[in-house]
């Protein structure tokens, strides 16, 4: 005890010892799995030490990393060109993927028709018009043989889609499916669907559906739940320049086709309509009109049926000074990012519909379809790519790497 007038001795403060990294590889992998799914995340982690590098370059870990992150980032988009399938990157450095990494030359008679789950679907423009699936990350391409029913002059297909099997169904990163919907030549009113599985190597055929004569919109498919959707307009209405659209649905579970009419008052326009998921995860669509947009969804009615209701209205007017021009052209939709690509007089912009954030991604103005590419891509994690360059890591210095590691 101290006497009066004397100060008690100050206790020396002791700081807690610094936390050490776990010694168990399984626990460390669980930590590394939670890194953000950006292209630079795993390359940066691989430079911490040899142990981290061994873990993140393991193909089994990389598959777990991709599956852990349900929604993959929007890396960029593809668009049609006369002699190539160019890739336009959208992310900033150090996550920006160089154009050459995902671009590819193609035969003049091939055209891109769909893009999903890190895969790109091409279609030959000449008989027998066979589809092919390209994986830009793995740098692999597989050409498919058409089912026998389509390899003739009586059937032609107009709707196509590529996807990977749903999670929880034994999906491996190398598995994929291709869906084709075709008309017969007897009045162009009977539609049938075929699904190819890379696991079995065979095509399965669905039940046929009788339709009115219609014209498919030349757009990529939309995947909502476990159903694929395409937009059509009735052929009789095209000559009169008015609307009346319908949505063709293919249920992958039941292998069945169905039709849903769109509201009759929707103005016609190839670049103003796009099927997309509603906020509740059901069927919806977006309709653009100059600098305004309406988001519609299917809602159950009191009698058990479903009806279209206006879910949300968007005014892009305050962005007009940035985008210039007097209207927007809808050129693409990214499913996992819930984002649209719009072409304007000053270039192409991506708009994230949930946050309404937007970004200019290209100065070149194109009014044909763009195909957003969403993928969990880890560049440069110890595997030299075909170009022999560690293209993402070359933008990062050691100080930025250490700052990133300190947040783990």
UniProtKB/TrEMBL annotation:
<dbReference type="Pfam" id="PF23635">
    <property type="entry name" value="Beta-prop_AT5G49610-like"/>
</dbReference>
<feature type="region of interest" description="Disordered">
    <location>
        <begin position="1"/>
        <end position="24"/>
    </location>
</feature>
<feature type="domain" description="F-box">
    <location>
        <begin position="21"/>
        <end position="65"/>
    </location>
</feature>
<dbReference type="InterPro" id="IPR036047">
    <property type="entry name" value="F-box-like_dom_sf"/>
</dbReference>
<dbReference type="InterPro" id="IPR056594">
    <property type="entry name" value="AT5G49610-like_b-prop"/>
</dbReference>
<dbReference type="Pfam" id="PF00646">
    <property type="entry name" value="F-box"/>
</dbReference>
<dbReference type="InterPro" id="IPR001810">
    <property type="entry name" value="F-box_dom"/>
</dbReference>
<protein>
    <recommendedName>
        <fullName>F-box domain-containing protein</fullName>
    </recommendedName>
</protein>
